[in-house]
Structure formats: C-alpha cells, structure tokens
Amino acid sequence: MSIKIILVEDQKLMRIGLRSLFEEYPEMEIIAEADTGKEAIEKTRLLKPDIVLMDIGLPDMTGISATQKILEETNFDTKVIMLTSHISEEEIQESLKAGANGYVLKDINTEYLMVIIKTVKLGAMWIDPKVVPFVKDRNSGIIPSRQLSRAKFRESHANLTKREYEVLKLVVDGQTNSEIAKTLTISEHTAKAHVCNIIQKLLVDDRTQAAVKALKEGLV
Q1: Digitized pLDDT (tens) for each residue of the chain, 220 residues in all
Q2: Same domain, residue pair 209 and 159
Q3: Domains: count for the chain
Q4: Considering the domain boundaries, does residue 90 fall inside one?
C-alpha cells in the first residue's frame, strides 16, 4: 500500500518540481495539493493522508498554524513534515510545539527525503541536521522521546562492524554503492558487500528499510 501525501506549497513551480520527483517512487502517492493553509486543513480533513508536506510561508496563515489546526482537529494518524527553506530558531521551535513530526530543508537529497517520509510514517521524528543546533538542549517538553539512543542502538546491533556503521551512515545519506565506494576509497564490489551484510544483520529486506531502521532507532 502506498504512502498517501498531501503537498502544501504556495509556489506552483515548486509543487510541479516536487510532484515530478515523487513520480519515480511508486510507493509514494501525492493525493492532493494545496497552496493555502485553509485548503490544506480542508483537504487533510477530507482525504486523511498519511503525510502532509507543509511549507511554512503560506499566503493566508503560516504552515505552523495550519499544522496545529490539522493535528488538533483531526483524529486520524496523519503526520506533518515541515518542508521549508526557513532556518529560524523561532519557527523551528514553534513547528515542533505545533506537533510537526519532521523539519526538513528544501535542499534535501531526494532519496533521503523518501526515507524520512517512511520513517516519520512509522512514528519517528526527524530534524534536519542543519537545524539541530537550534533545538539541541532546548527540546524538553517539545520533542517526544521516540528514538533510542545511539548507545542503545549499538547495543541492540553490536554485530555491525565499525566500517558497516560508516557504510550505513552513507546509505542513510542516500548514497549509491558507487558513491559509497568513492567516499570510503574502496571498490564498488566491497561497498556492495558491506550493504548486503548490513541488510542481513539488521533483518530488513533492502537498503531503504535499513536506512529507515537506522533513523527510527536513533543511529543518525
């Protein structure tokens, strides 16, 4: 079953560009678009998506206000991911207080975005590394504790080698086997072998599931 998504973005060209990206991922389905907060609220209430990708800068209200209304007024399991170019401490904090499950900058790697969407749908929270300094040590009462610590993850998956952790980090970053090989100065064959070992050790079916598990359990 595909992940149903509503795309909220006031810039038409941005909406067209994002929709074209999702066409390459059959497990994702854009079921509606909205260019105002009011429209986003109405369509979310009607269509009950799994994920709302929410821009902050909307013409009638902020995406933060729309997020709060969506999560207050709906009683189904919709998750909201802020997809924005804004890096403001106030907006980041207010987004999280409103109940957003993710805060992602628009320059995100496409494959990485797809992993984040899957991870958030499973119940995890994801914050773009570029904005983490704005929320670090200020998250008490704002960010739910949904992820295991790195120590807990390593304890649970102690059979991963140091190199496999390095490769897993690059898998989460969306790198292909070829790119991993170049980054770590190893052969593509060796990179592929590491990825296969990681998939087996984490008891998942493919590299995407490995990345999802790593994010959900707090490794990265």
Answers
A1: 789 999 999 999 999 999 998 988 989 999 999 999 999 999 999 999 999 999 999 999 999 999 999 998 876 789 999 999 888 888 888 998 899 989 999 888 888 888 889 888 887 778 887 776 666 544 433 444 334 344 444 555 557 888 988 999 898 888 899 999 999 999 999 999 999 888 888 877 788 878 877 777 666 5
A2: yes
A3: 2
A4: yes
Write out the residue range of the structural domain in which residue 197 sits.
Answer: 150-216
Cβ atoms of 34 and 8 closer than 8 Å: yes
Provide the sign of the torsion angle of the four alpha carbons 141, 146, 150, 154, taken in this order.
Answer: positive
116 and 60, same structural domain?
yes
54 and 11 share one domain = yes
- What pTM did the predictor assign? 0.67
